[in-house]
Amino acid sequence: MADEHARKWDRCLADTAVKTVTGLGVGIVFSLIVFKRRAWPLSFGSGLGLGMGYSNCQHDFRSPYLIHGRMVKVSAQCNFHCLSEVCDTRSHHAA
Amino acid sequence: MLPPGSASKVVVAGLLTVSGGIGGTVLYAKWDHKFRAAVEKNVPYSDWLLGLALGPAAQDPGLPIKKRVELAQPPSMIEKQAKKEGAEGPVKDSSPAPSQPAQSLEEASAEATHIISAIGEVPSVPAPCDTEAAAVKECNECHEHKEATAVHPAPTEPMKERPVEEVAARLAQQEQEEQDISASVSASLEDSLASSAKATLQAIGAQEAALQAIMQHTDKLKEAMEAEVLPEEKSNQWKDLEAALADRTTALNDARAALSKANESLDSLRSVIDESKGLKISSVRPLVLAAEENLHNMVVDLDKMVMKVQSAESEAKIVSQYSELVNEAKRQFQREVSSLTPEIQANWKGLTGKLSTDDLNALIAHAHRRIDQLNRELAEQKVREKIHIDAALEQQKLEDQKALDNAVNTALQHVKEDARLDQERKLAELREVMEAEMRTQLRRQAAAHTDHVQDVLKVQEHELKAEAEQVLSSKMLEQETRYRQLTQEQLDNFTLDMNTAYARLKGVEEAIDSHVVAEDEARKAHQLWLSVEALSYSLKTAEADVPTVPLENAAQAVRDSCRDNDFALALASALPEKSLQRGVYSEASLRARFNSLRSLARRVALIDESRNSLYQYFLSYLQAALLFEKSQEAPPSQLSSEDLDPFKLLSYASYCLEHGDLELAAKLVNQLRGEARRVVEDWLIEARLTLETRQVVNLLSAYANAVGLGTTQAP
Question: InterPro entries in the record, alphabetically (chain B) (predicted)?
């Protein structure tokens, strides 16, 4: 399990780096083609990429703690064995 | 800024305060040990300082007082013992003991009792010892008494018991003695009788010879006196006379000697007779009587002979007197003649031719004168004849009287003797008659006695027979019952023996079976043990980071070796599946892995379900970088809430792992929460696996050891 952590970090960093570079690239492309070589699409694109990477990373690190609920239809036959509706609304605890 | 002078003041004041505080602390610590202990505990290096100032802390004084008290008690007991023994010693010495062994016994017992009483037990022990000693003494005395009394009856008993036998023996002995004595007496009597008879005969013969000699001599003398024969014949006569005289003297001497001898032998015979009379034995009496009679006869004969000899001697004396007178007259005449005729010799008859006429005349004158004298004497004699005759008669009477007296005495003696002998004879006869009568009476009595005895014997026989038959029957009955009893007993014993043998056989069989079973068990137990050992050995095959070989084979072996043992089977099946398939990690590898995990767990210590953003991750990393804890810390026996801090938990777990306590480490690690828990989850699972497997294997091993020990047969 400890390796998992390290692997997660690897994935995370790699993914973030890729996304950032990809965003930068898209920004460059957009900057060159559409937005007349302005600087903001680069930072926007890299920022976009970084953010996506961060989010992915965080999600990856959080993934063990995420609980997936499902809706179950209550039928008339099983009155006593009602499966409770579990729906977890993750409250984002802002730092 | 403070002025420079006040700085020194401040420094000095500060120093004084500090030293005062330290001195006060030291002094108070010297007085109060608890304070000293508290100070040493709370202030580091104070124990060094206080030790330097005051010396090492005093030991706990609680124990020695008790020890001294305890030690004090036994010496008192020992002193008491010694005192008592000392008191007893002089007492014993002062009182003289009767016997040495008893005294030593008493002393030993007294000592023993004193020791026992000193220890505090019931002092009833001296009583039996003393009584024993007393009993021993008493027994000694009793023995002595018994011995003494035993000695006394012993000599008296034979005296009581002997008489019956003794009487018979003595009677027999007496008879024997009597016979011997009678034989000896008779022999002696005969001897003495014979000797005395011989002597008496000899004496009588000698007396006869003497008598003859005397008579001869007397005759010769008479002849010589009266016969007027020729001178030659006269000289022959005188020679014959002398010879006869000599004969007579010798015969008389012989007779006297023989007489004395005879008297001696008679005396001896008499003494023998008296002796044998003194013995008072009846069988000797007739012999004695006969001997006495013989003696008496001999004495009588001897006396007769002596009397004869005496009478002859008296006659001879008269004749010799007469001859003496004649010789005297002749001599007188001769003297006269010789005085008248001195030249003439004595033998004048042969000298007729030599005489002269004067001589003849003188001689004739002398003869005439002599004749006248003689005539005158004759006339005187005639006159005095009567007187002489009377005197002679008197003399004769006296002599006769004497002789008569002697004769009477001897006759009286003889008669007395005869009477006595007669009496004795009559007595003997009477005795014989009485004996005979007594014998007949005794015979009658004996006959009666025998009859009576026969009757009594018959009766007794009947009685005894009846008694004996009764006894016999009872004894027979007894014997029969005893026989039956014995046979029954034997039967019982036999059945008992058979039963015991059978039981023993059964027992032996059972023992053998149980042995077989036990051996089987033992074999199985050994197999189990071996398989468990194999299993536990296979646990050790784990190397670093590589799990052990799969335990499936070993577990299968264990399962095979305990097919009918539910407990072992249950245990064997309790092995976790993973360990069987894949094997378990060793403790060392777990330890190593934990060390690497620890840093990671420290880094994600802040992350849990609620805090898991990347910022939290950053903070968690920062915390891990800035927070320092002891790498290993001994965990307390009870965890408090502050001990649940992950860092502390990790240090506790590390300590436990370093000290080989995987279980506690796992428990502590189990307290981690959140991401740290997730991170060490694998490790925990592995640790659990290892612990489980080890527990099962330990259980199995213990069980196998126990079973093995149980089946081991003690030598």
Answer: MIC60
Provide the sign of the torsion angle of the four alpha carbons B416, B419, B422, B427, taken in this order. negative
CB-CB under 8 Å, B680 with A1:
yes
Q: Do A2 and B615 touch (CB under 8 A)?
A: no
DSSP code per residue over B65-110: HHHHHHHHHHHHHHHHHHHHHHHHHHHHHHSPPS-HHHHHHHHHHH
Distance from the Cα of B545 to chain A's closest Cα (Å) equals: 14
Give tens-digit pLDDT for A61-80: 888 888 888 888 888 765 55
Distance CA B511, CA B518 (A): 10
The residue among A52 and B68 whose pLDDT is bigger is A52
- Judge whether residue B115 has pLDDT over 70: no
Under 8 Å CB pairs connecting chains A and B tally to 36
Q: Which residues of A touch B616 (CB under 8 A)?
A: 95
- Looking at the complex, does the CB of residue A66 fall below 8 Å from at least one CB of chain B? no
**What are the residue boundaries of the structural domains of chain A, listed by start?**
2-62
Q: How far apart are CA B26 and CA B49, in angstroms?
A: 9
- Evaluate if residue B198 carries a pLDDT over 60: yes
Contacts of B277 by beta carbon, 8 Å cutoff, 6+ apart: B288
Residue B354 is predicted with a pLDDT of: 60
Q: Using pLDDT thresholds of 50, 70 and 90, give the confidence band for residue B45.
A: confident
Enter the DSSP assignment of B121.
S
Residue B317 pairs in a beta bridge with: none
Whether residue B276 contacts residue B189, with contact meaning beta carbons closer than 8 Å, is answered with yes
Which two structure tokens, joined as six digits, stand for B329? 């007259």
Q: How far apart are CA B106 and CA B98, in angstroms?
A: 12
ipTM of the complex as predicted: 0.75
Tell which residue, B264, B263, B291, B298, has the closest CA to residue B277: B291
Does A5 sit within 8 Å of B604, measured CB to CB?
Answer: yes
Per-residue model confidence as pLDDT tens digits over B591-634: 989 988 999 999 999 888 888 888 999 999 999 999 998 888 88
Residue A2 to residue B612, Cβ atoms within 8 A: no
Do B646 and B601 form a contact (C-beta atoms < 8 A)?
A: yes
Pair of tokens at residue B406 = 């002697």
Q: Which of B600, B610, B680 faces A93 most closely, judged by CB atoms? A: B610
> Alpha carbon of B609 to those of A6, A67, B92, B676: distances in Å?
19, 11, 101, 11
The tens digit of pLDDT for each residue in B209-225 reads: 888 887 887 787 777 76
Q: Is the pTM higher than 0.80?
A: no
How far is Cα A29 from Cα B707, in angstroms, rounded to an integer? 83
Q: Which of B627, B622, B664 is nearest to B646 (CA)?
A: B627
Tokens of B404: 């008569």
